[in-house]
Amino acid sequence: MTKLLMSRRRFLTAVVPAAGAFALTGCDELSRNPWIRDTLSSAENLTRTVQRFFLSPTSLAREFSENDISPAFRANGTKNPDDPAYRALVETGFSNWRLQVGGLVETPASFSLAELRAMPSRTQITRHDCVEGWSCIGKWKGVPLANVLERVTLKPAARYFVFTCADSLEQTLDGTGRYYESVGLEDAFHPQTILAYDMNDAVLSVPHGAPLRLRVERQLGYKMAKYVMKIDAVDSFATLGRGHGGYWPDRGYEWYAGI
Question: 218 and 190 in contact (C-beta within 8 Å)?
């Protein structure tokens, strides 16, 4: 099974640079090429089959040592959201920021950064694999998502968790340009799925997603939503965005994105 997962990683580092021959330069351009979409879909389906049916639901992504941490960790996607409300939060050091947690829960709640930091935490050194073909190793500290969800008590119908972010990657009339992502129950409660507030022993910076970013280590980098403002438990994401569960899935990428 390890060989199958490693084949997925080798595929990502081989097929995406090769796409340069088609004059593709980024995630949005990649999503417009049918061959890239079909090839990613095939590999994605294989990976999900392996992870769901042959591996333990709690199997961990590889963790590394302090010596393996990349000297420079590339910031992906948005690096400085221009949303006025977010900029105001930055000016106050996120002292007024609160994570809203609602949807299909019994007790909707909101948490300050200080409250999240006071919860039991997890630290992990993992590799971030971007669909564009690059990887970096970083050290993350944050609260396990499961700890937050347990405090709001899920309703039986809850199947997915939607992360609404502060950044917009494009302006759209239908409002689907704002970044969002989602994960299923199994990945939400995976021990390595955390809401990270520190990176490499320092407070998470704006380019890397301050004040809070999702880390779901068995999946590709575009699942690691930055600038998380709100989490909603839902039974379907068909009515959200363009109906595919995330900003990039709405534009042709796979929703699960396992590695």
Answer: yes
Closest CA to 51 of 201, 216, 222, 165: 216
| 141/133 Cα distance (integer angstroms) | 25
* Residue 20: per-residue pLDDT: 36
> What is the Cα–Cα distance from 226 to 169, expressed in whole angstroms?
12
Q: How far is CA 58 from the centre of its chain?
A: 18
- Do residues 109 and 152 touch, judged by C-beta distance below 8 A? yes
Residue 173 CB neighbours (<10 A):
6
Question: What are the tens digits of pLDDT across the range 50-64?
Answer: 555 555 677 999 999
Backbone angles phi, psi at 88, to 5 degrees: -65, -40
Task: Report which of 171, 160, 152, 172 is spatially closest to residue 236, judged by C-alpha positions.
Answer: 160
CB 201 within 8 A of CB 139: yes
Pick from 5, 1, 3: nearest CA to 44: 5
Residue among 69, 143, 45, 106 at smallest CA distance from 233: 106
Q: Identify the CA nearest to 141 among candidates 83, 194, 92.
A: 194
φ/ψ of residue 36, rounded to 5: -65, -45
In whole angstroms, what is the distance from residue 29 CA to residue 81 CA? 21
Q: Which two tokens stand for residue 139?
A: 């050290």
Instruction: Give the single-character DSSP code of 64.
Output: -
What's the mean pLDDT when you consider all of the chain?
A: 86
Helix (H) or strand (E) holding 202: strand 202-203
